Amino acid sequence: MPRRKNWRTAEAKRDILSNEINISYAKKDSHSTIQTDLLQNQNEQSKNNSEEEVSKYFNSFNAIVLKFGTFDQYAIKFADQSRGNQCTCNCLVFLSLSTLNFDSNTLNLDYILNKGDEIYRNHVQELKTQGLFKNMLLNFDEIPVKIEIPEGIFIINKQTIQFGVALQYKELTGFLTLQQSIQNCIKQSNKLLIMIGAICSAVYYYNHIYYFFDSHSHSECTLNNPLDSSGNSILIGFADLHDLLSYLYAFYTSLQIDLDSQYEILPVCISSKNTEKDVTKQIKNYFDDQKLKNTKEKKVSYQYMKVPKSVYMKNYMENRRKKQKIKEKELSAKRYSRKDKNYRKTEADRKKSQRNDSYIRQIERQRECATKREARKNEDFKKRELAAKREVRKDENYKRAEAQSKKSQRDNFDLRQIERQRELVAKREARKNKDFKKENLLLKEKQIERQKELVAKREARKNEDFNKRELAAKREVRKDKNYKRAEAESKRSQRDNSDIRQIERQRELATKRESRKNDDFKRNETEKKKIARQDEDYRKHESERDFHRKQEYRSHPENLENERLKKQSSRQKNLDIDRCYIRQSKALKEKTLISQIMKKT
Questions:
Q1: What angle in degrees, to the nearest 10, is found between the helix axes of 464-478 and 481-495?
Q2: pLDDT digits (tens, 9 = 90+) for 458-509
Q3: Is 205 in contact with 284 (CB distance < 8 Å)?
């Protein structure tokens, strides 16, 4: 991934911020056991400095609104299973409450974090019971769709996810920047969830103000300070999008998140449903039902309830279609009407709109499965279906599409289990047949023989003369054009398989590692790379390749979690080093002060 042009300035700003934070921290933790007068003066100075720093940062980011909670999501009050992982649920609670008479002054951030923790724990429990739980950090496709809190029931409608790179470079084109994505998403909804790295925050656009809510640790300077253990949640508002972006970049750099990493933005539409209205509705339905029962009892036996017209017609037509003549007439009429193009278009549109409904799709699927099962009882139909499938599978594009669909299905745990059970049942049925058993034994014997041959070849290839003879024979065979073509096609078909590609990649890497142990090879390789990197196209290709590799690596939540843990451990090491340095400096100051006092006395 190529680094951005103005990375030095960003790093310099971050160093200035960290130095100022360290200074304030050192001021607060100065000697406190020598003289009480010095301690009082020290505390007064530290308070004045902290107030000055807050006002300075408040003005530097051009913030209109600034509000802190009394704790963050890493507070000890939260359980171990949820602590530090509730950011998505916290953001959803904030956005849900913002639908009800939003006022930044009366909004309770601590209440949001408490409710978010409850919702997170309940939702994780639901995912575990359903067998859909993957990771403690929830992705956008795993967040809850419905939230129940005392203020009401909130239904969350997810829009299309936008993703890209936080900062745009000339070398990378086709990716949206963070600013472009926020502008596009606000057109869809004024409520957004932003995820970069393992950090999820919320943006709410209201009355021409961009409100940013985050439940992670924020110090008095509104950014993350690793030296400050008493961080709080934050709500900060900006009148301009550029001010919001400058704050976001500063916040992410304070968290040591690389700004060339991928981000995701999810616009959400939230609709509220009042619980009191639901209760009154239920009571009204109950009384209506009781009234209906009483009127039924009062009616005379010959009186009956009227059947709706639609139900009557449905039953009438079903009974009518059982007759063969009427069936044939209806089919011929449909065939005649389908000759018209406009009719065909309207019918296709109607079917598409019906298939968007999941309930209708399920019914249609069940009907198709039932008709296929009935048809497959006929052996002629079976033979024709198999022959048709074989013909279709000759096409390479169809084969690739089928393989990809199977891979995507196997990623689902439930489908894998169903497939496994089906295979086991089929194997048990097949093993009852004696011929199948014999064939299975023959296959095993062939495999053993194949392994023996491979071992023998490996042993023989240790001899240099045999190697030379084998290579000479291969070169002779490869002179034939037909053989060369067949070999190239077989290699292509192998490379279409992802498992074989991975094995080949690992083999190449192993050979490269072995060869790189030689200094001459290393030198030649570096010289070749230097020459190749002089070309701009090669550099672009290399940067894009690295970016896609990073993107693919970070698409797995496990890798993201590992990356986050590594960063956390490195931060802890740096924190320990800083603490050790502070302790040493404290001890030195104490010694100097004591020596000065002793001299005076």
A1: 100
A2: 888 888 888 888 888 888 888 888 888 888 888 887 777 777 878 888 888 8
A3: no
Specify the residue for token string 């968007």: 356
Within the chain, what is the greatest distance between any pair of CA atoms?
123
CA distance between the termini of the chain: 64
Considering Cα of 271, then 123, then 134, then 548, what sign does the dihedral take? positive
Is 186 buried (19+), middle (13-18) or exposed (0-12) by CB count in 10 A? middle
**SS3 state at 476:** helix
Distant-in-sequence, close-in-space partners of 194: CB < 8 Å, separation ≥ 6 = 182, 200, 201, 202, 203, 248, 263, 264, 265
Band (284; pLDDT cuts 50, 70, 90): low
**Would you call 266 helix, strand, or coil by DSSP?**
strand
Cβ–Cβ contacts within 10 Å for residue 365, how many?
10
Domains and CATH numbers, the chain: 7-27+36-276 (3.90.70.120), 310-407 (no CATH)
Do residues 201 and 191 make contact, with C-beta atoms less than 8 angstroms apart?
no
Q: Taking CA 197 as the corner, what is the angle to CA 193 and CA 199, rounded to the nearest 5 degrees?
A: 50
Q: Which residue has the tokens 């067949």?
A: 486
d(CA 11, CA 21): 15
Percentage of residues of the chain with pLDDT beyond 70: 83
Which two tokens mark 7? 């990375």
Euclidean distance between CA atoms 97 and 182, whole angstroms: 21
What is the tens place of the pLDDT at every residue in 442-451?
888 888 998 8
| Cβ-contact 115, 149 below 8 angstroms | yes
Residue 547's contacts (CB-CB under 8 Å, 6 or more residues apart) are 1, 165, 172, 260
A 10 A CB-CB count for 494 gives: 13
Q: What angle do CA 473, 477, 479 make, to 5 degrees?
A: 125
For residue 145, which of 119, 182, 125, 181 has the smallest C-alpha distance?
119
Q: Cα dihedral sign for 72, 78, 83, 88?
A: negative
Q: How far apart are CA 85 and CA 134, in angstroms?
A: 13
pTM here is 0.41
Are residues 1 and 546 in contact, defined by beta-carbon separation less than 8 angstroms?
yes
Q: Are strands 162-165 and 191-196 parallel, antiparallel or unpaired?
A: unpaired
Residue 101 has pLDDT above 80, yes or no: no
Tell me how far apart the alpha carbons of residues 5 and 173 are, in angstroms, rounded to a whole number. Answer: 16
The token duo for 233 is 């949640």
Q: Are 134 and 142 in contact (CB under 8 A)?
A: yes
Q: At residue 238, what are phi and psi to the nearest 5 degrees? A: -130, 145
Percent of the chain with pLDDT over 90: 9
DSSP codes, 209-240 = EEEEEEEEEE-TTSS--TT-S--EEEEEEESS
What distances in angstroms separate CA 277 from CA 156, 287, 343, one per listed residue? 19, 16, 45
Nearest Cα to 179, choosing from 166, 163, 161? 166
CA atoms of 237 and 240, how far apart (whole Å): 9
